[in-house]
Amino acid sequence: MVKIIVLGAGVVGLTTAIELKKWNPSLEITIAAHHFPGDFDPSYTSPWAGANWQSFATGMDSQLQKIDWPGYERFLRLAKNDPRAGVWVVDDTSYHTKYEVAAAKGNFQSFIPWYKDVVQGFKVIDEEKIPFGDISLGTTFKGVVITVPIYLSYLVQQNKELGNKFKKIPLIKDIREARGITGNPDYVINATGLGATKIQGVQDKKINFPVKGQTLLVKNNAKGTVSVSGFPGYTDEMLYVMPRRDGGSIIGGCFRPGDESTTEDKELTARLIRRATKYVPELVNPKFKNNSTKIEIDKVNVGFRPFREDGPRIEVDSKYKWLIHDYGAGAGGYQGSVGMGQKVVEVLKRELSQSKAKI
Questions:
Q1: Which domain holds residue 27?
Q2: Where on this chain does D-dopa bind (predicted)?
Q3: Using 50, 70 and 90 to split pLDDT, how confident is the model at 359?
Q4: Average pLDDT over residues 186-214
Q5: pLDDT in tens, 110-160
Q6: Residue 244 belongs to a domain with what CATH number?
Q7: Which tens digits make up the pLDDT trace of 260-272?
Q8: Are 1 and 103 contained in the same domain?
Q9: Which of 293, 308, 323 represents a domain boundary (last residue)?
Q10: Where does the pLDDT of residue 42 fall: very low under 50, low under 70, confident under 90, or very high at 90 and above?
């Protein structure tokens, strides 16, 4: 029997453990982590996310496209077939300001995503139907929103139902410590996100760095997901509004590499509220789901996304052949989690077949 430790219980680690067990039910899998769903810590990224599916891959980035695409199909299926997952289908609309389009020298094509021909219902919104004078381009498709606390709990339950085990551990300082968690496992999957390269013994030629994000969990409801990019003077900010299936919405956000402050930026909060009420007016319309006439904030979330130069790392370590890396999702942890897990399966399948060939 092949024994595996999945190190890390964020969305990537939990999903990878599920994909491995579904591929080979005989695997003995233990998810070992310092933080689990229900914990809130700035170093534990997954609880702070929005989250939805809207791939950040460029048209040339076929590797990230392959990682992101399986998530769209999975989330649509969960929304249709399993209400326990906390996923639902909503229209996903993206607006680009005149300022942003002008900066791109009017190249509208650069704002058309790679997935336009594969997602359901993608279209460019007719200009006369865009209700905002400062918007040059709008696109929309059939998207999904994931209610993070519900979905993380769902992943835990899925792992338990499949027979995977859980073990809470102190933060490990050296990657070799992972092999002592349950007695010399055959493989360790490094899905530790922000902490991936802070562990001694883990070498990466690419730069790994946290990127600060700030979101508002509000009681107000929206009809669908809306994002607006291209605010003059605020290159590290955009607006996104995601309505949750269980009520309320997430309003974000910002993209701030190098900012390690865990305190709320109150001026950003004020800007987010102004933008949200302008571009998603039903948020403050009592005629829509009895919304308040003001944005009612339940919680301000400040978290850090685990970015890696050149995107996710999913490969066998060059030094420790028992170590498989599975980190670097950046802001795409939820949408890329299924694809990352499936790629780990491919890596492990190749490793096991090679080891059998040597025997």
A1: 1-86+147-207+309-359
A2: 54
A3: very low
A4: 95
A5: 999 999 999 999 999 999 999 999 999 999 999 999 999 999 999 999 999
A6: 3.30.9.10
A7: 899 999 999 999 9
A8: no
A9: 308
A10: confident
- Per-residue confidence (pLDDT) for residue 356, from 0 to 100: 64
The confidence score (pLDDT) of residue 48 equals 87
244 and 322 inside one domain: no
Specify the number of domains making up the chain.
2
Q: Judge if 28 and 134 occupy the same domain.
A: no
Clarify whether residues 278 and 324 are in a common domain. Answer: no
The CATH number of whichever domain residue 27 belongs to comes to: 3.40.50.720
Whether pLDDT at 245 is above 50: yes
Binding residues for D-dopa: 54
Write down the pLDDT at residue 357: 52
Average pLDDT, the chain: 95
Same domain, 59 and 173: yes
Whether residue 5 sits in one domain with residue 56: yes
Alpha-carbon distance 29 to 16, whole Å?
Answer: 10
Q: Which residues are annotated as a binding site?
A: 45-46, 54, 192
List CB contacts of 356: < 8 A, sequence separation 6 or more: none
Report the alpha-carbon distance of residue 337 to residue 67 in Å, rounded: 8
Which residue numbers belong to the known binding site for FAD? 45-46, 192
Long-range contacts of 98-105 (CB under 8 A, 24+ apart): 98/134, 98/135, 98/136, 98/230, 99/134, 99/230, 99/231, 99/232, 100/136, 100/229, 100/230, 101/136, 101/137, 101/230, 102/136, 103/230
The reply to whether 157 and 303 lie within a common domain is: no
Q: Which of 31, 325, 259, 253 is nearest to 158 (CA)?
A: 31
Instruction: Mark whether 4 and 130 lie in a shared domain.
Output: no
